[in-house]
Amino acid sequence: MPLPDTALTPQEAAHWAARSGLTLPEDRHAAVAATAEYIRSVVSVLRELDFGDTPPATAYHAGEAKTDAAV
Residue 43 and residue 31: Cα distance in Å, rounded? Predict the structure, then answer.
């Protein structure tokens, strides 16, 4: 689902916090909205990465690291 292009407003941050069952004091609305926007910007960059040839995490086995790399 694509993210909207508009920024999250402090009022929307309060709304979504309330829907999640969180009590958000009024003086925190703007800070929470700004933090959510920052997280959204980071996630949008991660969504653009191509992991097509990357094996799933279940393919990794701890302790089987190769130690033949040159330094």
Answer: 18
